[in-house]
Design brief:
about 400 residues, globular, 8 helices, alpha+beta, Alpha-Beta Plaits, 2 domains, Immunoglobulin-like
C-alpha cells in the first residue's frame, strides 16, 4: 500500500547536510530517515516503546521515502516530484521547462539525452538559440494532466540564521562560538510517500489526525525550528499499476530502438529516485549499478550495461537518542541513471521481475528512504530530445 503525504513547513526547517562546526548547510529535501524519526518521536511521546513501535519503526515493515519540494506556483496541480536524472539537460543561457517561463523569465525547455548519449556520438545544442546544453539539478514536478513539467527551485526558499553558543550556567556567550545555520523558510511544501504491506498506513493516518497533523523534525526543535503540518491527501498515479508499468517500459524500448538500438535486444533503464546504499558480496560499497548486480536481482537474466550517468556521495547522520553520529555510508546519488539491454526473448519474464524490483527497491536501509528506483522512468519518455519541441 502506498500513501502520498504533503508537508507544509510552519517554522523554518534546518536539515544538516555536512559536518562543519561553524556553518550548517541545509538539505533541500526532507530525507526519509528524518520523516521516520519524527513519527517515532511522536509515537514514543504518546505510547512509549511497545511491540507496535518495533513493528512500525524497527523491523522495516514501513518504508519512509524522501519528501521532495513542490513548486509554489503549481502546488495544487502537482502529482509527482522527483530529482532530475543526470541525463536531463537544458539551455545554458535560458534553462528550465517551457512551463517555467514567466513575464520576466525566458526558458528554452528541458531535454533528456539518455538515448543520444547511449546510441549516438552527437552532442546537441539548444535547438532554440544554439547555446550549449548544461545538466539540470534539483527537482522537477509533474502536473495533474500527466504531460506538463515544472522545476522546483528550493534554493530560492532558504535563509541563514546566525547564532552564538552560550554557557548554560551563566547565560553568557561563548568566545569564538559564532555559527550560521541555513534553513528552509516557512510556507514551503514537500511531497513523498510512505509504503507498507497494507497493515500500518491506516494506523499512521489516524495517528496523524490525533496529533493534529503536526510533527517536529530537523535541528533546533526547541528553538523555534522544525514545526511542520502533514496534509493527508492522496495523489493516485496510473503508471505505477502493472498495466501502466508494462506500457511504460514498452514505450521506452521503442524509443531506444528508434535511436539506434538493436532490434534483437530489449532495453530498460534504472533511475535512482533516492540515494542508494549498495554493498557487494564482501560488504564493500558499490559506486555504480553494474550488469552482474542487476542480473542477480532479475532472476539471473543476463544483462549488459549500455550507458550510465552516476556519481556518489557520503551519507552522514546523527542519532538523537544516543547523541552520537551515525555510521557513514557511501551512496550512489539520486538522479543516477543506468541503461541495460537483455535478449529480446527474455522480455516477457523480465517484465514481472522489473515491476517487483521497482516496488521493492535495491540496497540497504530502504525503510529510511534509500534505494528507491524507477524503471524506464516516464521523464525519459516525455522529454527525450525532439529538436526544439520539448516542454
Amino acid at each position: 500500500m502506498r500513501k502520498v503525504f504533503t508537508i507544509e513547513t510552519i517554522e523554518p526547517l534546518v536539515l544538516r547536510s555536512d559536518t562543519s562546526l561553524r556553518s550548517y548547510t541545509s538539505l533541500n529535501y526532507i530525507p526519509g530517515t528524518v520523516i521516520k524519526g519524527a513519527f517515532a518521536n511522536r509515537y514514543i511521546a504518546k505510547y512509549g516503546i511497545d511491540n507496535r513501535f518495533k513493528e512500525l519503526f524497527l523491523e522495516g515493515n514501513v518504508l519512509f521515502k524522501n519528501f521532495y519540494p513542490i513548486s509554489s506556483r503549481y502546488r495544487e496541480n502537482v502529482i509527482l516530484t522527483n530529482p532530475f536524472p543526470e541525463t536531463a539537460y537544458s539551455c545554458k543561457r535560458w534553462p528550465g521547462f517551457n512551463f517555467d517561463s514567466t513575464d520576466t523569465r525566458q526558458t528554452h525547455g528541458v531535454y533528456d539525452l539518455i538515448f543520444l548519449k547511449a546510441f549516438s556520438i552527437v552532442t546537441p545544442k539548444c535547438p532554440k538559440c544554439g547555446e550549449p546544453l548544461k545538466p539540470m539539478s534539483g527537482f522537477y514536478n509533474l502536473m495533474k494532466d500527466n504531460t506538463k513539467y515544472a522545476s522546483s527551485e528550493i534554493e530560492e526558499s532558504k535563509t541563514i540564521f546566525t547564532h552564538t553558543a552560550i554557557y548554560y550556567s551563566t547565560g553568557v556567550a561563548k568566545t569564538g562560538q559564532l555559527y550560521n545555520e541555513e534553513a528552509i523558510v516557512e510556507g514551503q511544501y514537500f511531497r513523498g510517500e510512505i509504503i507498507d504491506g497494507g497493515k500500518y498506513i491506516p494506523f499512521l493516518s489516524d495517528f496523524l489526525k490525533e496529533s493534529g497533523y503536526v510533527l517536529r523534525l530537523g535541528r533546533g526543535r526547541t528553538r523555534g525550528y522544525g514545526k511542520i503540518k502533514v496534509l493527508d491527501k492522496d495523489f493516485p498515479r496510473k503508471d505505477i499499476s502493472f498495466e501502466g508499468f508494462k506500457e511504460r517500459i514498452a514505450r521506452f524500448n521503442e524509443l531506444a530502438l528508434r535511436f539506434g538500438g538493436n532490434k534483437d535486444k530489449f532495453y530498460f533503464a534504472v533511475d535512482l529516485i533516492s540515494d542508494a546504499i549498495v554493498l557487494d558480496n564482501y560488504l564493500r560499497y558499490k559506486k555504480f549499478i553494474d550488469s552482474k548486480y542487476i542480473s542477480s536481482l532479475l532472476g539471473n537474466i543476463e544483462c549488459k550495461e549500455i550507458y550510465s550517468a552516476s556519481s556518489t556521495r557520503e551519507v552522514i547522520g546523527w542519532n538523537v537518542s544516543w547523541n552520537l553520529p551515525k555510521v557513514k555510508h557511501i551512496a550512489i546519488k539520486k538522479g543516477s541513471v543506468f541503461l541495460f539491454e537483455v535478449p529480446k526473448s527474455k522480455e516477457g519474464i523480465l517484465t514481472k521481475y522489473l515491476f517487483d524490483l521497482e516496488n521493492k527497491g535495491l540496497g540497504i536501509i530502504r525503510d529510511e528512504g534509500f534505494g528507491f528506483i524507477s524503471i524506464s522512468d516516464k521523464f525519459h519518455l516525455d522529454n527525450y530530445f525532439k529538436e526544439g519541441k520539448n516542454e
